[in-house]
Amino acid sequence: MSVFAAERAVAINAVLQASKVCQKVFKQLVNNETITKKDKSPVTVADFSAQAVVNTILYHSFPNDPIIGEEDTKDLRVESGKELRAKIHSLTNSILDDPLDETTLLDAIDRGSYPGGSQGRMWTLDPIDGTKGFLRGEQFAVCLALLVDGKIQLGVMGCPNLPVDSKVPEGEKGCLFIAEKGQGAFQRKFSSTEETKIQMANISSILEASFCESVEAAHSSHGDAAKIASLLGITKPPIRMDSQCKYCSVARGDADIYLRLPTRDDYEENIWDHASGALLVQEAGGIVSDIYSKPLDFSLGRTLKSNKGVVVSHSKIYSQVIEVVQQVLLKK
């Protein structure tokens, strides 16, 4: 029986509404404005608007729950942020039932400033995970998770550009993924409330496995991943996509392994980049750890301070995967 039924329903609504904001921004701003790669204004508008929408919806139902969000408004509150602020204000109010004035909007965004920790309830939000994917019209995700005493209890992800069925890549797009601790992993369309239980692919050998990895080599070492695949005898080409959509693809069986391999020693992963995805894969039958096979620890603040890298695998082949990951990385 669901312990977090109310939270689940609110989180689904929040992620769906934020996904609508992102779709609207892409349609209005990216398609209608000539943008350069250096111009991040469309993604900035979407990021802030999505965070405002989610934080407002969460606050309405759970006013005492703190939020760990990615964005703050210091650049919006100054005179040079006036034009951007107006766009964010307009877009946010086009989605919310009750319009916000500018001050309330900025305060809603800043509600995401909680430092995190190991005690009590808190939500963690990435309003647009995969900003480059968003700008390309490819994969990005709105990611929301509920933590209680440092443990993930609920995760909801909206993937507006992910095909409902990976076997029909040009078919209907827009998927919502939902996981509650101990309750399984589910997928539904944006266009329907009907949920389908998902689980990882039933593979009998690691030779059948396929990788999912980041598009950006700066986020994860493609060279190390290729070595690992070769040593494991995996010959299928990697599926490359941005954002936590990779977790979703692995959870529903499109791929079997996702590696986020460190590209520099001092990098700490942000908790909002992994919280909802990690729970989804675990509930779908997979294992999620760091490169030392330690579980990810979400109780230490805004980053995974005690972990290095991320290894996501089908439980049947995890021991083989982690052994080769360590063989390749720890020899360096």
What would you note in describing this structure?
This protein is of the alpha+beta class and 332 residues long. It folds into 2 domains: 5-198, Fructose-1,6-Bisphosphatase, Chain A, domain 1 (2-Layer Sandwich), CATH 3.30.540.10; 206-329, D-Maltodextrin-Binding Protein, domain 2. The protein is built from 9 helices and 12 strands. The chain has helices at 5-30, 41-61, 82-93, 102-110, 131-136, 222-232, 245-251, 275-283, 318-329, and strands at residues 67-69, 121-129, 141-148, 151-163, 173-180, 185-189, 196-198, 211-213, 239-240, 257-260, 286-289, 310-314. Strands 1-2-3-4-5-6-7 form a 7-stranded mixed beta sheet, sandwiched between helices. Strands 9-8-10-12-11 form a 5-stranded mixed beta sheet, with helices on both faces. A hairpin with a 6-residue loop joins strand 6 (185-189) and strand 7. Helix 2 (41-61) packs across helix 3, helix 2 (41-61) packs across helix 4 (102-110) and helix 6 (222-232) crosses helix 9. It is globular and about 55 Å long. The termini are far apart. The relative contact order is 0.13. The mean pLDDT is 92.
Number of domains: 2
What is the tally of helical segments?
9
User: Element order, helices and strands?
Assistant: HHEHHEHEEEEEEHEHEHEEH
As a whole number of angstroms, the C-alpha radius of gyration is 19 Å
The tally of strands reads 12
Give start-end ranges of low-pLDDT stretches. Answer: none
Terminal Cα separation, in Å?
47 Å
Write out the CATH superfamily name of the largest domain: Fructose-1,6-Bisphosphatase, subunit A, domain 1
Molecular shape: globular
**CATH topology tier name of the largest domain:** Fructose-1,6-Bisphosphatase, Chain A, domain 1
Mean pLDDT: 92
> What is the CATH class designation of the largest domain?
Alpha Beta
CATH architect. name of the largest domain: 2-Layer Sandwich
Strand order of the largest sheet: 1-2-3-4-5-6-7
Q: Assign a percent range to the helix content.
A: 25-40%
Measured by DSSP, the beta-strand proportion falls in 15-25%
Catalytic activity: 3'-phosphoadenylyl sulfate + H2O = adenosine 5'-phosphosulfate + phosphate; adenosine 3',5'-bisphosphate + H2O = AMP + phosphate; adenosine 2',5'-bisphosphate + H2O = AMP + phosphate
Protein name: 3'(2'),5'-bisphosphate nucleotidase
Binding site for Mg(2+): 70, 126, 128-129, 273
GO molecular function, one term: metal ion binding
